[in-house]
Amino acid sequence: MPSAPPLSVDLSGIRLDPQRGLAHQLYQALRERILDGRLPGSTRLPASRDLAGLLGVSRNTVMRAFDQLYAEGYVEGRVGAGTFVAGLGATAAPLPIAQAGSAQTHALQLLQQHHLNPPLSGPPRAFRVGVPAFDLFPFETWARLTARFWRKPSLARLGYGDPAGDLRLRELIAAYLRNSRGLHCDPAQVVVTSGAQQAISLCAQLLVSPGAQVAVENPGYRAAGHALAVAGAQLRGVAVDSDGLDTAELARIAGCKLVYVTPSHQYPTGVTLSLARRLELLEWAQRNDGLIIEDDYDGEYRYSGTPLAPLAALDRQGRVLYVGTFCKIAFPALRLGYLVLPPALAEAFARRRALDMRHSEIGTQAVMAEFIAAGHFQRHIRRMRAAARARRDALLAGWPSAIEGCAPLPPVHAGLHLCVRVDSLARERELIATAARVGVEMSALSHYWLPDSATPEDERAGLVLGFAAVPEAAIEQALEALRRAWRL
Fold first, then answer.
1. Which of 32, 183, 236, 349 has the fewest CB atoms below 10 angstroms from its CB?
2. At the top level of its lineage, which domain of life is listed (predicted)?
3. What are phi and psi of 215, to 5 degrees?
4. Number of independent structural domains in the chain
5. Local confidence band at 391 (pLDDT 50, 70, 90 cut-offs)
6. Looking at the whole model, is its pTM more than 0.90?
7. Is residue 129 a part of any domain in this protein?
């Protein structure tokens, strides 16, 4: 792969008129040099910071020009390597039409085969999965901070912003992760996203090539698998046991260089990836030149001891992409999350996000930054953790002890949901259908498995119960309704 020093390309002849659109002028100048051969295929372009310094313009100007060239196919981004002129010497040529169609067909088939149910709407009920106690959110404080920001916003913040996100928010995210999770990172490694799902989708778009073997937990978070499949991945399910992802099984997947995991609180089984497995997973990534997408969707909720250090905090080789979200602490509609990336990947991810939606809405970012800086965020985390613990206790104390075909509830040390095994698929369906008739929501564990799993169907059965969505009184009412419906 070409690896010329960033400024070995002579672009000193480019002259930009400050009275006209700088980004468009730079785009035209670079496109002209590509078309006439002065910038041949596979030429590495300078990094945006270096080119901005050379031309005396802002980095945003350079990135907007690069984005336009990228969108029109004149240049391509290579993860960890930089921006290259597209051409015959490029290594990431577009898919032939037949192959592209085949990959899209495969992705659509996966979407049809997998049980990807849309998130339930309306007020939360027991025992909805994935919903925190957003009835406790300090909306008055949030409204006051929002009004303060929009009363007289800085004009500098009303134009196009950094696609990586508001700098102050990224600085505060980095400080929060350092203090609460032991994850040391630079704000330049943080990319703000519209929730964790967009972060996962960005990983899929930039890290997956059609036909690539990508490992996912099985059972696991199906929306992540769908994002990877749509990008062309061949999903390989890896078993989950009491210690988390089976790293020995992962090691047997030939050619796999990417794995998606939820180590702090596996989704949906609720187990925690053991320290030994964490070290084995990092060793796997180093040995195979692989990458790990770590989704820490509810890592703040730990009921004994402090939250576990994430994989990213143990990573010394730049192998882990850490996905975080504010939606499990605030409320899902906020749509605010973030990625912490190895330094070599941060610019490529920001540029790719700029093509999708330019950047996140500035008001939400600015208000969240102030919410964190003023201490409201940490206070709210403590309140949410205490509420989730109390609601967990209400479920554990009131759950019927003798449900035919249903195992006892497991101990719950983390997260916002639990998983209880059921002895057959038929019994799983019967329990869920009966609960639904009395207004109680449950998720089927069988829906979290890949469709081609070797595990027998009855061994996939179970109930996934969220316990944080409603107060203790509502949990007790739901449990009483279940006792009557199940005739216990």
1. 32
2. Bacteria
3. -90, 140
4. 3
5. very high
6. no
7. no
